[in-house]
Design goal:
The complex is a heterodimer of chains A (276) and B (538).
Chain A: H1 6-41, H2 45-51, H3 59-70, H4 77-90, H5 96-112, H6 118-131, H7 136-151, H8 165-171, H9 177-193, H10 198-211, H11 216-232, H12 236-249, H13 256-275
Chain B: H1 2-28, E1 39-45, H2 52-66, E2 70-76, H3 82-92, E3 99-101, H4 112-116, H5 121-124, H6 150-154, E4 164-170, E5 172-177, H7 178-185, H8 194-211, E6 216-218, H9 222-243, H10 254-262, H11 271-284, H12 296-304, E7 308-314, H13 318-324, E8 329-332, E9 358-365, H14 372-382, H15 385-395, E10 398-399, H16 432-441, H17 452-498, H18 503-532
Parallel strand pairs in B: 1-2, 1-3, 6-7
Antiparallel strand pairs in B: 3-9, 4-9, 4-10, 5-7, 5-8
The chains are: A mainly alpha (276), B alpha/beta (538).
């Protein structure tokens, strides 16, 4: 009866047949999830929500749902709150979705709620970095936290009136070279905006440039900027190097005329220094 | 005889077969005999002057020969008043064309790229496949443009991204009815400085008075008046822009100029800015009274009638001028205001430059296009050496791409003035609100009732609020792009994990992370200025 009898064989077959749709559904669920992410990546969050089963408890599905909710147009605090509820639940885990959720929860407070709460966002970035300091999302969060500390929630207890020091402290915690580059660039730009001494922020701009990969106008601006600021700091050799590079990379730009004049100036100063 | 009958029989059989084939086709197929193409992409622009529609049509014809699957439809939408509304309503309604022209100066449309267009940066880093066998083969697409896409880079909503490619190049010129110039002044020599032009204008006015002819030095309209005003106004502003260039860019973006006004570092009453207004007043005085109420077509007619010696317009009108004027038209450069100028020279830091030309007619890819790949492919063809050559030859507009041969008629347009160039825009078009106030009060500058002092005072009363609003809008537009990127970044990261062999998603994720941080930094810098200044606060 247990082995070789036709009864159990047919039962197994029936069971298999019954399982097939379930297996197919499982496979489709993963395909649906990818389609949902693709829809979000293509700025169609409503399509993503249609593809996702609200009652599916899988963490990856819930993350996609929350992301689609926060991306909906028009953005309302109700949608953001619904997304946050899911992020909070997911963030208690110990996996990649947990870090993504914790990061995105901080973003909601910084950008997505109609009334931003920068202090709360800063607190959440900090907490994520303490929990999983090596996670990409924690590291990206540190870049955002540094921006907040530079402009909107200055850390007045750290290093007196030095507005760049708190961001530099966070920079030291970042190991991803691309994120280091992005934060170096931001510290450099903040140095200008916050009227800090040149010597404090120019090295950050040079460090950002060394990593490379900065594109479009940002690249062109940075090359001229390092040249001009180096000149203002009296570092004529560095100024010359960057002006020459600009003229090789952007010979037809409207700025090329002034860059050429500045290069001539730098060469004159270097020659004078060599002569004396 | 039998051969003749045989031929006739063959003819009847062939005719019968053709008829049968036609009947079969009509009853079994719903499509025309010539197969309809499965993909149609729509390409919208406002360049309805003589030239560009022909140039684009020529490129489309060749592209469709090369790509039998794709049909490209050219949509010509009149610019000044219709295009902005048409663009916004179609984009908002989800019926926007696949490719469309956009310009940062379109009032109230600054948010469009962030909302509806998609960046082309990654594609621009690769060579354009349609350049195979040309001088541009193997060169990254971005580097094949004559100016490396200066304007799309400058107008990008994200500093790390490029959103458009250009198909032409334009500049502004003083087009001269050379016979009339000779008649009025006894010479055909082009002016070499603004002071020179000043003297020519005086001689033309004298001639018109003496002969009682309705001749003016400059063909007048609100459009042409504003174009020449912008060119001259910029001259003394270069020194002001240089003085506020804290970042060391050797260039000031509109947001920097707006911020500097709120910090009290310049005003319309500042001596250098007022010197620019003085030049504007002077030159618009050479146009007929009431020019502000007229449009560019009216100025063209005035010029064609022989009632104006010069018309100041862009090379976009050159084909129309050449084809329609009943006299010889000679393009000249608007002469520079020099440091030696007797009136405003002390505010001039040197010769103003045009760079090496700025490419224009920037075309953007609709983020929601259903045929992104095909639309992008058409853009690549249109901006390849062969595609852009077809456009140039048929339109007589300058090409945007290196390696395209210039037709004889337009060679002179590439004769650019080298010199200083410090700003994204003269201070009348640094923002929509600013431009609105400028236009509203412009009558206080020109004509017998107008004066520099009156205009500058009026502007400094209304501009604080306008400038603060424009800076707030710049900040909001920057954030418009930053906010949705959070979801896009995570989605691309997830797709990168799900499809590890496809590097595209990881590349896009990292590119967006970098761009988003830069944009956020910019927005926070603008917020800092708005929070720490009081000018224009209500």
């Amino acid at each position: 009866m247990l082995s070789g009898s036709p009864g159990p064989r047919s039962t197994r077959a029936i069971l298999l047949l019954l399982l097939c749709p379930l297996l197919a559904a499982g496979a489709a669920s993963s395909a649906d999830l990818n389609e949902a992410w693709l829809a979000i990546a293509n700025s169609h969050p409503k399509d993503a929500l249609r593809k996702l089963d609200e009652s599916d408890p899988a963490r990856a599905v819930q993350l996609a749902r929350a992301v689609a909710l926060m991306a909906q147009q028009s953005a309302t605090d109700d949608n953001v709150r619904a997304a946050e509820k899911i992020f909070v639940e997911l963030a208690t885990g110990n996996d990649e979705p947990a870090d993504e959720a914790a990061y995105l929860q901080a973003r909601l407070y910084q950008l997505h709620y109609v009334q931003p709460d920068y202090a709360k966002a800063a607190e959440l970035y900090q907490a994520l970095a303490q929990r999983h300091p090596r996670s990409h999302w924690a590291q990206l969060g540190l870049v955002k936290l540094a921006l907040l500390k530079l402009y909107v929630v200055p850390d007045t207890t750290a290093a007196g009136s030095d507005r760049l020091a708190p961001a530099e402290a966070l920079l030291a915690q970042i190991s991803d070279p691309l994120l280091q580059r992005d934060l170096n660039l931001q510290i450099g730009q903040a140095g200008v905006a916050l009227k800090q001494p040149l010597a404090r922020f120019l090295p950050h701009l040079v460090a950002a440039d060394r990593v490379g990969g900065i594109t479009a106008t940002a690249r062109e601006d940075l090359i001229v900027q390092i040249g001009v600021l180096s000149m203002r700091a009296g570092d004529w050799a560095q100024a010359k190097k960057y002006f020459e590079r600009y003229l090789v990379e952007f010979p037809n730009n409207v700025r090329a005329y002034d860059v050429k004049l500045n290069l001539d100036d730098a060469i004159r100063h270097l020659a004078k220094r060599a002569g004396s | 005889m039998s051969v003749k009958r045989h031929r006739r029989r063959i003819g009847v059989v062939v005719l019968g077969l053709a008829y049968a084939l036609a009947v079969w086709w009509v009853f079994t197929r719903s499509t025309p005999l010539i197969q309809q193409r499965p993909v149609t992409i729509r390409f919208a622009h406002w360049q309805i002057e003589r030239g560009p529609p022909d140039g684009i049509a020529a490129a489309i014809k060749r592209y469709e020969e090369l790509n039998p699957r794709v049909h490209v439809e050219q949509l010509l939408i009149p610019g000044a008043t219709v295009y902005p509304q048409w663009m916004r309503s179609n984009l908002a309604g989800g019926t926007g064309p696949d490719l469309m022209e956009w310009g940062s100066w379109l009032a109230g449309q600054r948010d469009i790229p962030a909302r509806y267009f998609t960046p082309l940066t990654a594609e621009l880093a690769k060579p354009n496949p349609y350049n195979k066998g040309t001088s541009q083969e193997g060169i990254p697409w971005e580097k094949t443009f004559h100016d490396n896409l200066l304007v799309p880079r400058r107008d990008s909503p994200e500093p790390g991204q490029i959103y458009a490619v250009t198909i032409s190049e334009a500049t502004v010129r003083l087009f001269c009815n050379i016979k009339l110039l000779q008649q009025c002044t006894g010479s055909t020599a082009a002016p070499t400085s603004f002071d020179d032009l000043r003297k020519i204008i005086a001689r033309i006015e004298d001639y018109a008075r003496r002969t009682r002819q309705p001749i003016h030095a400059l063909a007048g309209s609100g459009d042409n008046g504003l174009w020449i005003a912008e060119s001259l106004f910029s001259a003394p502003l270069m020194g002001v822009s240089r003085s506020i260039d804290d970042k060391g860019y050797l260039y000031t973006y509109n947001r920097d100029v707006l911020a500097a006004y709120l910090e009290g570092r310049w005003s319309y009453g500042s001596p250098a800015v007022s010197a620019g207004l003085r030049l504007v007043r002077e030159v618009t005085g050479a146009m007929k009274p009431g020019f502000l109420q007229l449009h560019r077509d009216d100025a063209m007619l005035e010029f064609f009638r022989g009632e104006a010696v010069f018309i100041y317009t862009g090379t976009w009108d050159a084909t129309s001028l050449r084809r329609m004027a009943p006299f010889t038209v000679v393009p000249m450069r608007l002469p520079n205001v020099l440091p030696s100028d007797p009136e405003v020279g002390r505010y001039i830091i040197g010769i103003g430059g045009e760079g090496q030309g700025e490419t224009s007619v920037a075309m953007y890819l609709n983020r929601y296009s259903e045929h992104k790949a095909e639309a992008l492919d058409f853009l690549k063809f249109l901006t390849s050496v062969p595609g852009n050559q077809l456009f140039t030859d048929a339109s007589l507009w300058l090409p945007s791409v290196n390696g395209v041969k210039l037709p004889e008629e337009i060679k002179d347009f590439r004769n650019y003035q080298l010199g200083h160039s410090f700003g994204q825009a003269p201070y009348d078009i640094i923002g929509s609100e600013v431009n609105g106030e400028w236009k509203r009060h412009f009558y206080q500058l020109v004509g017998e009732q107008g004066s520099v002092k009156q205009f500058a005072t009026a502007l400094d009363e209304v501009m604080p609020v306008a400038i603060r609003t424009d800076l707030q809008n710049e900040m909001r537009n920057t954030l418009l792009l930053v906010k949705p990127q959070d979801a896009l970044i995570v989605a691309n990261a997830e797709m990168a994990t799900a499809t590890p062999t496809d590097g595209h998603y990881r590349e896009r994720q990292l590119e967006m992370e970098a761009g988003q941080t830069m944009s956020e930094g910019l927005a926070l810098q603008m917020k800092l200025v708005l929070d720490t200044t009081t000018i224009g606060k209500r």
